[in-house]
Amino acid sequence: MKSRLCKLLPALVLCLIFPLFAQNSAAFDTALCHTQPTLIKGQETIFYSYLLDSENYVRLRDVAWFLRGTDAGFSVQWDDAQRIVSLTTGGAYDPLGTENTPHESGPFDPSLALPPTAQLLIDGQPAELSSCLIDGSHYYRLRDLCAALSIPVWWDDARRIAVVGGDPAFENRTVMVDAGHGGSDIGAVSQWVGYEERLNYAVASELAGMLRAAGCRVVETRGEFDTVMLTDRMAQVRALCPDLLLSVHHNASDSHTATGATVLAQVGDEYGGPSKTLAELLGAYFASQGRPINDILFRKNSLGRDYYGLLRAAADVSVPAVITEYAFIDHPEDSCCVNTPEKLTAEANAIFLAVRDWFSSLS
Ligand SMILES: [Zn+2]
Prior knowledge:
Blueprint: H1 2-22, E1 31-40, E2 43-52, E3 55-58, H2 60-67, E4 74-79, E5 84-89, E6 106-107, E7 119-122, E8 125-127, E9 131-134, E10 137-141, H3 142-148, E11 153-156, E12 161-164, E13 174-179, E14 189-190, E15 194-195, H4 196-213, E16 217-220, H5 230-240, E17 244-251, E18 262-265, H6 274-288, H7 309-316, E19 321-328, H8 341-362
Parallel strand pairs: 1-12, 5-7, 13-16, 13-17, 17-19
Antiparallel strand pairs: 1-2, 1-6, 2-3, 3-10, 4-5, 7-8, 9-10, 11-12, 14-15, 18-19
Zinc ion (ZN) binds at residues 180-181, 187, 196, 249, 307.
């Protein structure tokens, strides 16, 4: 019995100690004192943080200070006796005057980022966010914090700025993202990159994620394996009347010789209007990625390719709408621009940036 206890005791001790550090290990390989240009609720500022293993770590009070008075605001209390940090969503933040203390950017000794010594409660519930203790203050991984509080956060690569709390361009905007074809409708077929519906879904779902992260409301017309009839998609557009309908397709031609990116725009804007403006922006971003650009198309009739019906449905309810055809997947060279996940992400990013610019131009 004694020997069993002796064997169990170290394990028991480990079990008691380990949970304290298991979720919050502060052993980092790389560290940087960071001065991060950041757009918070539309206000451009410098966020003083630490970049630990390439992840942004921030103090709760700094974030609370930036977000004070907004819907995403929260209050922070510190219980020194119990070593508990309490974050209350919607609470009014009481500034200390020491928030976002400037520091020089540059290398930082990662061994100075210590394991956390406090428990975090969010609205009274224990929260496990990756965190560490630097110079007496707790720092939390920004990505975890924003996820826990449902605060949009994303990196705007074009502007080289972090965006917290949503981009004002997307405030109160609803975008319907339509991944063309799907399920039993495979769309065009490429001997190099497979079924069109798979590419459409990959780009559309990534685009939807980017839009949501930027604070946009997104409605997707289909799930990954769904077969959704065109008439049902048209009904969705008419019922929702979103601020924008984006339909993602990839092209093919009868001759298998056509190339380039094509955007089809809602027919009501043929002689100028928001859909045509967006189509031009999409063309510019696609061109910046090296894509040859074809003329913007306005199709009044189905011409046997019935997905144009979506644009007709959008025109019925005056919803700006475009269909993107980033490449001809039945062409050996054109298909090369959609043959890796990274290239599909680049395509989604180009669409995202065009939509962002477009919404900005409207507001
Ligand atoms: Zn298609």
